[in-house]
């Protein structure tokens, strides 16, 4: 609906294209027999966001060409041609990260990588083939009026780079604030972050109910009671087939909490207290797995830097993009520390999603900077080129972030606790990724050009 309201006929094409994309995604998930885990869903969310992004980039380009006086037919052809480099570079950069994670990752990280890689390939196909075919079909059916496509309005360049000291200061303050909160948590006898049972181990409690409860009933009636006792939204449930027994896995419970857990089951569900047993369980995410996840992300970042260096012929583009990724990860880490959201397997998936989302947004801006530098006149300074480029892509940054934010917000509103704990920091990451792409990367690139000048650059 949002795409249709903003882009008129192209928005209708986007809706149809995304519907086809979703259908293809489901078919291919089934064809490759991929297990759909929560991190896997994260990969799908990121690829849907990139599919929306590709459409936004294309339509913005078409509007710009119409504004230059070109016919609709010419604007469509030129718009797709000019959008190709940003779409391909953004998707391939993320695809490189997915490949590294698939090769080096373990468990849920592989699930994230597989669904992300599949989604990226399908999103490029739908954007460059399906969307283009549908646009040509509508044009052939008589949709030739410029009013159906819209015209880009001339925008006065916003001077983002002049505020770089303010933006850098805000970012540093937020990141340092996160570390301060971690220190406060440590000093208060807690962990720096609210590690879940996957990281810290916990308590497994077996409860035999008097009736066979559905998973929906368990999530709606039982889990909220347990969350009130533990103060933790990361409660895992597992039904034993052929019985009325349910296993609840939580953070480590002390004697008083175990007794409160037992009383809650007896009072609310008339469970036989003797049929409630509890035992300690070890962490499922070992130090080796954590180290491997960090190493995978670092190698993926290096590979992305090399690719951006190769494509843009300037390592400072890659360095700025990777620095923005680090910025986004640290800001979201600060969010985890302040809000005390449970850090489990969804944490790794969330961070990987933010990395992929942020790099794509940055590539779009850098692609426009590269294009404008080739066309810049002698009177234009680099600051003016960067500000013009960011302003020209600003609607893309806002619209893509807004559509993805709406999708993740829906997950938060309608999801169960474990999904909420994934969606909330992801929303923070989307906002942070948009901020860093618009306010940080361009200015950082200018700083690197001045600190590390190159010949003929």
Supply Rg: 25 Å
- Overall SS class: mainly alpha
Number of E strands? 4
Overall geometric form: globular
N to C succession of SSEs: HHHHHHHEHEEHEHHHHHH
* Poorly predicted segments: none
**Overall average pLDDT:** 85
Reconstruct the topology from this structure:
Layout: H1 2-7, H2 9-31, H3 38-67, H4 72-104, H5 108-140, H6 164-187, H7 197-200, E1 202-208, H8 215-230, E2 236-239, E3 245-250, H9 255-269, E4 276-281, H10 287-312, H11 315-339, H12 345-375, H13 382-392, H14 394-414, H15 417-451
Antiparallel strand pairs: 1-3, 1-4, 2-3
Would you summarize the structure shown here?
By secondary structure, this protein is mainly alpha-helical.
How is this structure best described in words?
- The protein is mainly α.
- About 75% of the residues lie in helices and about 5% in strands.
- The protein is built from 15 helices and four strands.
- It has helices at about 1-5, 10-30, 40-65, 70-105, 110-140, 165-185, 195-200, 215-230, 255-270, 285-310, 315-340, 345-375, 380-390, 395-415, 415-450, and strands spanning about 200-210, 235-240, 245-250, 275-280.
- It has a four-stranded antiparallel sheet with strand order 2-3-1-4.
- β2 and β3 form a beta hairpin.
- α14 (about 395-415) packs antiparallel against α15 (about 415-450).
- The longest helix has about 35 residues, at about 415-450.
- The model has no long low-confidence stretch (mean pLDDT about 85).
